[in-house]
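Review form for a predicted model. The reviewer records the input and the model, then writes brief findings.
Reviewer: anonymous (R2)
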Amino acid sequence: MTRARNLRAEESANNICTGDCCIGAVQRSYSEMCASGAPEPVAFDAALRVFKWHHPEVAAANATTLVRGWVCPPQSAAH
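Model under review:
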């Protein structure tokens, strides 16, 4: 619950709404890369690049936090 609350705060601080179409694009790029057999770090990097394309104004650390929250289960969020 705390992780979800922190993610919402990060989204809000960066003017990313939960209905933003980039969330779906980020999640889709990650899941499709994983499904194609790409290593998880490669899939995460692809998802991060998709996010940065949509939101170049968001700082790198904040982008990583957001993408991690959208694509990684809580136990594997150690990027």
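Findings: The two ends are 20 Å apart (CA to CA).
Further findings: The chain is about 70% helix and 0% strand.
Recommendation: see findings above.
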